[in-house]
Amino acid sequence: MLTYDSAIAKKYAFHRPGLHLLNCIPAALPLYWVDATALILDEKKISPIDEYVLRAIDDGIEDLGDISNILGLTESLVKESLLRLYKDDLLDLPVVANQRILRLTQKGEVALSDLISLTPEKRDIWFAFDRIQWKPVALPSGHLLGGKDVDEEGLLRVRPRLTKKPSLEEIEPDQVESAIEISMRNVLTKPNILVLKEIGKAFQKFLPCHLLIYGSDDGNQHGVEIVVDGRLEEDISQSLDELGGLKHLKFEIDTAAENDSEEMKIFDEITPKLSKPILSIEEANNSLSSALSIASFVAPIISTLCFLRMPLLSRSRAALRAVWPPMVGNRASGFSFSMIFSIVSQWMGSI
Fold first, then answer.
1. Helix (H, G, I), strand (E, B), or coil: what is residue 249?
2. pTM for this one?
3. 47-114: CATH topology
4. pLDDT tier, 250 (very low <50, low <70, confident <90, very high otherwise)
5. Are the C-beta atoms of residues 278 and 337 closer than 8 Å to each other?
């Protein structure tokens, strides 16, 4: 299960110059698992029998019976091998002195030296498609979650760039090649896509991640970074910025929370709260008996940065229902910011 990660928050706290890290949110990036049809050249290994037949012909043995005797194979097996080699354009049958002889083609000579065969074929393929960057990506299916898994783990669903499935015109063959090298690595050796013929079904999937939310002191600047498996995904973060950053992000609301008066309906409604950083490190370290340190005893969150003691977007599930008092644990839990702010303000006024 993906949870609030204080190690990630500490590692990337100052990644955005001039901005403070406001929160680290467990989330899910939207993807499609796409079924498609393509004409491809797949590098596949030549079978041992075909290799021996090629080597015999390369040594000048041109008679079917001679090849059969030398290799110790039946003539029917040699005929099947010759047929495969001819279909793969590795073998030719030119007419010399009014009779056909066996000759390796240029492709056959190359294949013999590399012991591989390039065979064009139309076949079904499958790959992951990033709905933020809107392009195929190299991911195995085992890394992805279904919608039910995302809901059960309480992950925030990131809005996709588009809700439709991708079209043929929007997909580059070289991007698909890179993608299926991972998604089909147990099926294809080294595919070379000639033509992408058809886009079939597109199944909705998700990639677990962390959203890092940043804000400036004056509240005029915000930023979002994406972290997957502990690593920053700068290309995805850049695409999210191009879509509008925080303005593009909207929370998925579950039906059970629709009538909750404290429910945060959409992300735009809480961006004003994000505009003011909690406290700078210098302010937090001025006094161990400061209001912030007192507040940390009221709403402690284990192993977080000092300025993340009261995450503005802390949550335990996608619905972001406010809870008071907050639950103590290793992950950020939802709570009423207004209540915390009111208590801290009272303490600060009494100091």
1. coil
2. 0.57
3. Arc Repressor Mutant, subunit A (1.10.10)
4. low
5. no
